[in-house]
Amino acid sequence: MSIVIEDLTHVYNPGSPFETVALDHINLEIGTGEFIGLIGHTGSGKSTLIQHFNGLLKPTSGKILMNGLDITGKDVKLREVRQKVGLVFQYPEHQLFEETVYKDVAFGPMNLGLSEEEIHRRVTEAMELVGLSFADVKDRSPFELSGGQRRRVAIAGVLAMKPEVLILDEPTAGLDPRGRDEILDQIKNLHKKYQMTIILVSHSMEDIARLVDRIIVMHQGKAALTGAPREVFKHVELLESIGLAVPQITYLMRKLKNLGQPVREDLLTIEEAKQEILNWLRRK
Amino acid sequence: MLRDITIGQYYPVDSIIHRLDPRVKIVATFVYITALFLVKNFVAYGYVLLFLTVSVLLSKVPFPFMVRGLKPLFLIIILTFGINIFMTKGEIIYQLGPLDVTKEGVIQAVFMGIRLILLIIGTSMLTLTTSPIQLTDGIEKLLDPLKRFGVPAHELAMMMTIALRFIPTLLEETDKIMKAQMARGADFESGNIINRAKSLVPLLVPLFISAFRRADELAMAMEARCYRGGENRTRMKELSFHGRDMAAFLLVTVLLVAVVIDRF
Questions:
Q1: What is the ipTM of this complex?
Q2: Where are the beta strands (DSSP E) in B70-147?
Q3: Chain B residues in contact with A54 (beta carbon < 8 A)
Q4: Global pTM exceeds 0.90
């Protein structure tokens, strides 16, 4: 599913002293099957932007086209839009409410009015996708699971709607390193295996560099910069001036370069850097 | 959606009304309400309206903003108006099916309508120009004399501060959970009453859980900073009584006296 954002502006509390322009004439295009990384410091408009993708927020002005259909229109069935665009909020485990994991994951499919068998199939599938053992946890209360497991239940709840686009707002916030890696691997898998379009909001430049095809940098309600990670992370000074950074390893390579060593400085992952440093040492 | 509620909201600008001592504003509000309910004819409403207009103008709170606060109460105003217009006995001037519209009814309805509007705008002046912290400070000070009779004034004020402090937080939380469930296809807006009540479960359960978690965390954080009740506590901002407070106090007293004199 392709998403086109045309001249999108969103103003909170218009006409009051609390008026704030959260999005300021944004133009974006997201192609089918793309893996997008959305970065920006707190308050840059990321969360506001992603809530427009499934019609939770209405733009003050501008258009949002999903496969050419403007979802800001009056007679658009929002439930259909929300089925196609799954949104996982920050700390999604805070939205769990059912007595059992099964019932909670089934909440979305139930709202879609699917048959019992279809719901059962989707719940099984969604739990498998996030790496939860169906037999072990389906009858347990979500509240007796660990934090990481609870988060996965919540993500499964969105996946069970079978979205074509999956948006995740800091899915790894507050998780331990292992939980973080597991969730990111599963997201990568969703993109690779199911060609799902993914929009990942994250503050970890490392994760973004490692995973995404294209980065969108938000700053003061505008899309300040977009491009492939290697392109975007070249703009170190610009990124730092808006409260962001580049991956640690990129800093290391820059330092080496500044010390007069003939190495590439546009490297993003430890693997790449290792190779480059080995080559450099061999050449020496 | 939930952000549109302006009733009880604080409007942060600097004006002479904002700078008044909260105690004076609280007492003045009570005097104002008393005066409003003692009004017997439209002339006395003139006095109240004059007083209100002056304070609104001095407060620098834009009038449209105040009117927006009236919106949720519009139904109540219409209802009062309707009941009064049809339920008052007297000289019939118009008949609407089985309902009689009387001259007394119209007068009574207009009279009550004005009273309600003046009541709402007048009392919202207090919250619009006084921050929640000042408000509870004022209440605590006003309740001070009652401490002698065992009224836990400080604790009450603290409870109020905390409650007020968490209203926006809980509204935000409600908004967030609502959106999260809507993203999963939940529908809070259509269906009959039973279905709607049922659809609130996915909202209320997470909301309660988070409210308890927040309460727990807050208690812990207060404990960690060695909080204990009112005794010997000093405060950052002491309330003090100025000339303007005296003036405000006199003004509202004049209003009350004028209204009382008008009754006889």
A1: 0.88
A2: 92-96, 99-102
A3: 183
A4: no
